[in-house]
Amino acid sequence: MSHHTASADPRVDIVYLWVDGNDPAWRARRHQAARQGGAIDPGAMALYGNVEGRFRDNDELRYSLRALERYFPDHGHVYLVTDGQTPAWLRPSSRLTLVDHRELIPSSQLPTFDSAHIESYVHRIAGLSERFFYFNDDVFFGAPVQLDDWFWSGGVCATWSHDPVVEGTALRSDENALENASRLSAQWLGRLPDYRHTPRTFAHSPRPLLKSLLLAAEAQAPELFERARSTTFRNWASPTLVSDFVLRRALAHGHLRMRECAHLHVTTGCDDQAQQLDALIDAAGTLDFFCINDTTDDAHGADPRLAKVRAALQTLFPLASRFELEQPGPAHSPAHTHRHPRPAVRHPSASMKR
Fold this sequence. Notes:
Largest sheet: 5 strands, mixed
Number of domains: 1
Structural class: alpha/beta
Low-confidence stretches: 1-7, 341-353
Distance between the termini: 32 Å
Shape: globular
Mean pLDDT: 90
Number of strands: 13
Order of helices and strands: EHHHEEEHHEEEEHEHHHEEHEHE
Strand order of the largest sheet: 4-2-1-5-9
CATH topology: Spore Coat Polysaccharide Biosynthesis Protein SpsA, Chain A
Helix content: 25-40%
CATH class: Alpha Beta
Number of helices: 11
CATH superfamily: Spore Coat Polysaccharide Biosynthesis Protein SpsA, Chain A
């Protein structure tokens, strides 16, 4: 398997997953699917698998795109993977393509509300470059991007999180998806000769990836990908592969290098939210990346904690990006959503949280 195609195609594309959980039609489908799933297997749902904070749009995507434009203006094409939705503020652009779930995922597997399921298909986006960054919409670049910090001639780079060591290798219904992802990787990769597992989770970061790494992982472990693609909601027994297994497999095969970098992970539902946001603003321009994880869970959309997050993001990134329609004033309210039967923003040459 070659990992040197980057020299032939220097472009580095961007892939986002995005959803607006306030969309009434989408919410109706989500609630119906949850009722059906709970009746079939009431113990399958992962911790925080169906809370409002997982699906809420608090304008994170708008500001993540502003950060992208500020810190990585030479990025390639942007692909926005959605479930038939379009941010109302999104400006049609030849540099951005909306990708509907139906273009990536077989109809027999839809609908799905599990980002681990959806992201297992991102390398199949038509026209996607070999090297690309994969984002959840709550992840942001925090300083000018030097591609050598993220990609190298043999693969990609990653950073460990600051979270505690993951205990044991048996998956647990009472622990989060990244902890269980580490355990699943330990189980599967433990079959490889000389594999040594690091019981930590990877940082919530812009994820540098190669299509070839994902294709190789899928070819080597088709049963894991089939398992991840069987879910409707996040399932504790089918954790993310893209944010753990794919990376650990690359590390085991010499295609991933670990690096230290400056980063923050803000959890918005904590009592010290204000202090965390102040620390983030104080560190502006000095962080390689940061994540603002919506852990307000089932809070109402008018919860003041959500407004404080938007205000902090507006302070950090006050200038609109090329992807925004002109607004009469700064963005301080969650975006409304347009439904579209098929992707509405197309490139002429182009064929979830916690």
